[in-house]
């Protein structure tokens, strides 16, 4: 069962042992997912920072991360979110759309998302 959806900033905080890593670890243990769109961003940023994606992938798999493929519903919701919060990236909007579809909160380290019943800040 999926209890939350993680955005790229949350996954990177966990993988790089940054502030908020413990909250993400707890979320992973409780059953977390991420969109394939967000996973792509994690791979890109991790490699840009000199990290080894193979090791990171094994860690996330071992923690039970579910990688959720985007749906047409997600694509439409992500487009609608652009009108509501135009400063969010496409990946951020896919994270929120996935969380909305699954009916669970999204976890992020990005303060610009704010915090409400559907968004939880990890730090």
Summarize the model shown.
The chain has 123 residues and is α/β, with parallel strands linked by helices.
Summarize the structure in words.
This protein has 123 residues and is an alpha/beta fold. The protein has six helices and five strands, in the order βααβααβααββ. Strands 3-2-1-4-5 form a five-stranded parallel β-sheet. α1 packs across α2 (21-31) and α1 (8-15) crosses α3. The longest helix has 13 residues, at 36-48. The protein is globular. The mean pLDDT is 96.
Features:
globular, 5 strands, Rossmann fold, alpha/beta, five-stranded parallel sheet, 123 residues
Order of helices and strands: EHHEHHEHHEE
Rough outline? globular
Task: State the CATH class.
Answer: Alpha Beta
Nearest-angstrom radius of gyration? 13 Å
Would you count the extended β strands for me? 5
Largest sheet: number of strands, sense, barrel closure: 5 strands, parallel
In whole angstroms, the N-to-C terminal distance is 24 Å
Percentage beta strand: 5-15%
Estimate percent helicity.
55-70%
Unreliable parts: none
Summed up, the domain count is 1
CATH topology: Rossmann fold
């Amino acid at each position: 069962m999926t209890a939350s959806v993680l955005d790229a900033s949350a996954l990177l905080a966990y993988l790089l042992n940054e502030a908020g890593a413990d909250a993400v670890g707890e979320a992973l243990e409780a059953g977390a997912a991420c969109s394939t769109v967000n996973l792509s961003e994690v791979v890109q940023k991790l490699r840009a920072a000199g990290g080894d994606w193979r090791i990171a992938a094994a860690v996330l798999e071992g923690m039970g991360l579910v990688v959720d493929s985007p749906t047409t519903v997600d694509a439409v919701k992500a487009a609608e979110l652009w009108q509501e919060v135009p400063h969010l990236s496409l990946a951020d909007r896919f994270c929120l759309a996935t969380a909305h579809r699954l009916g669970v909160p999204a976890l992020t380290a990005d303060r610009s998302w704010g915090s409400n019943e559907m968004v939880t800040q990890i730090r």
